[in-house]
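Lab notebook, bench 4. Still working through the backlog of constructs that have no structural model yet. Next entry is a single chain of 204 residues. Request: give me the structure tokens for it.
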Amino acid sequence: MPTSDPPLNAPRSRADLFWSFTTLALQGFGGVVAVVQRELVEKKRWLSREQFLEDWAVAQIMPGPNVVNLSMMIGGRHFGVAGALAALAGMLAVPTVLVLALAALFATVADAEVAQRALRGMGAVAAGLVLATGIKLVGALRANVMGLPVCAAAAIAAFVAVALLRVPLGWVLAVVGGGCCLWAWRCLGRASPAPGDAHPANPS
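Model written out:
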């Protein structure tokens, strides 16, 4: 007999938001989307997979770093402006200090061959983390209003445009993203009941 998923959790306080996003930010070396998905969806269960995909899509088209946008969206959703600021502080305060310290240390070894090889290796790991997270989230697209085939076609089109054809990201968002928005709007319109169908009259 199928069982429903357990209910989602919520941040307990603004301090919980701050420390949770501080912990998340300190893990985000390279493949940050993998860390965000694991922490917010699998461990804390503040978002479902479907909600994560929707919020991450919005965060990506907003100005600024994606994960910072997402943290402010979650903080604002639960505690208003104060929650958004607490989440933002968690994302930036401690990591900023560490990044400045690491930048100062790396400047002394940046030209060393060992450091260059280490960076290339970390780049490969980060790419693998992002790819693994994308595969893990594919199942959530089955519930997308556009349908899985259209979502897959949009993902392939975006990959080909950015990775192979080197089309600027702004044009990809405008064309592929805009087309997806129009198609989703059309699908939502077809799925919504007509005003006369909302409350059908009882047969006399």
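Notes after review: The chain has a mean pLDDT of 83. The first helix runs from residue 14 to 27. Flag for follow-up if needed.
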